Amino acid sequence: MINERHFGTTQDGREISAYELGLPNGITATILNYGATLQALYLPDGRNVTLGYGTLEPYVSGVHYLGGIVGRNANRIAPARMIINGTKFQLTATDGEANLHSGPMGFETQIWSTSVEDNALVLHHISPDGDGGFPGELDVTLRIIVGQMSLRLEMLARTTKPTPVNMTWHPYWNLLGKGRIDGHVLSAESTEITVLQKAQPMPLNQTRFDFRQPLALGSVQIDDNYVNIGKASVSANGTTLHVSSSLPDLQIYTGDHLPVPRSGIALEPQYRPNDINFAQNCLLQPEQTYNHWIEYSFETT
C-alpha cells in the first residue's frame, strides 16, 4: 500500500507530498518528498516511534535534519576542505571549522521527484556539479520499501567526476513514543570509536561509550562514530529496533541538542567522519556506482 496526500506548499509555490507506505497488521511509514524525510513510523499498536513535525515549515527552517536523507556527505569534514587528485575543494563551514552534513543546502532540503515501482517508493534527485562545493554532477536514486515489521532504504548514485558520497538517513527514534530516551537500552557491537580529526580509532574498552553488553543509556551523552559495527539495537517498552547496513560504521547521537533534549536517538550508518581527508573510502569514481542500503527492523514482545 502506498498512498499520497498533500503535506504543504513551499514559499515559492511548490507542492510537497506525504506518502504512506504499509502492509496490513504491520508498520506504516510516512515519507515526504521534501528531503526524502521519514516523517512518521507507526507500529501496529499505534505508537509513532520516530520524531517528526506535523507541518512543512519546521522542516524548512529547522537545523536538526529530522528524518531527512543526508548527502552528499554525512557527518563532518574538518576543516571544511578536501583534496581530490591534487585539487583542493573549499566547502562551507557550518559547525565551527567543519562542514556538517554537506552544508546548508544538503539533500534533506531538496524536493525529490517520486514514482512508485511495485511495492517501493522511488525518489530521484540530481545534484549539480559544484553543489555545496562538491565536484561532479551526482545522480541519486533512493528506493524505500516497507515490510511487515521493517523499513529498508536502498541508495544508488553515479557521478561525472570523483566526489565523496557518504549518504545516510537521519531519523530520531523514541520507542516510548514520547518523553526522554534515558531508559532505552542500547547494544552496539563495536570495539572502537573515531575522533573527527584523527585517522586512528580509539578503543572503547572500559569507557562509558562501550555498549557491547546492552546497557541503559542513562545520562550518557553520545555523538560518536562506532567503527566496523556488527549489529546495533535499541530497546524500550517491549520493542526492539535493530539497525543494519552495508555501510561499515554507525554514528550514534543521543539528541542532547534537540529542541527537547534527549527526546530521540539517531542511529546513522555511514563511512567514518572526515574519511575524504584520510582513507577516502567514500570517494566515488565516474566508472563506479554507489550502492548501499540501510534497514530498520522491529521486534515486539
Index terms:
1 helix; globular; aldose 1-epimerase activity; mainly beta; 301 residues; 27 strands; Beta-galactosidase, Chain A, domain 5
How would you characterize this protein structure?
This protein is mainly β and 301 residues long. It has a single domain (2-300), classed as Beta-galactosidase, Chain A, domain 5, CATH 2.70.98. It contains 1 helix and 27 strands. Strands 10-11-12-13-27-23-22-17-20 form a 9-stranded antiparallel beta sheet, with no helix packed on it. β22 (232-236) and β23 form a beta hairpin. The longest helix has 5 residues, at 57-61. The two termini are 26 Å apart. The mean pLDDT is 96.
Number of helical regions: 1
Distance between the termini: 26 Å
Q: Rg to the nearest angstrom?
A: 18 Å
By secondary-structure content and strand pairing, the structural class works out as mainly beta
Average pLDDT figure: 96
The parts where pLDDT drops under 50 for at least 5 residues are: none
The total count of strands amounts to 27
Q: Numbering strands along the chain, what is their spatial order in the largest sheet?
A: 10-11-12-13-27-23-22-17-20
Assembly type: single chain
Q: Any idea what the shape is?
A: globular
CATH topology-level name: Beta-galactosidase, Chain A, domain 5
Largest sheet descriptor: 9 strands, antiparallel
Number of structural units classed as domains: 1
What is the succession of H and E elements? Answer: EEEEHEEEEEEEEEEEEEEEEEEEEEEE
- CATH class assignment: Mainly Beta
* Percent of residues in β-strands: 35-45%
Helix content: under 10%
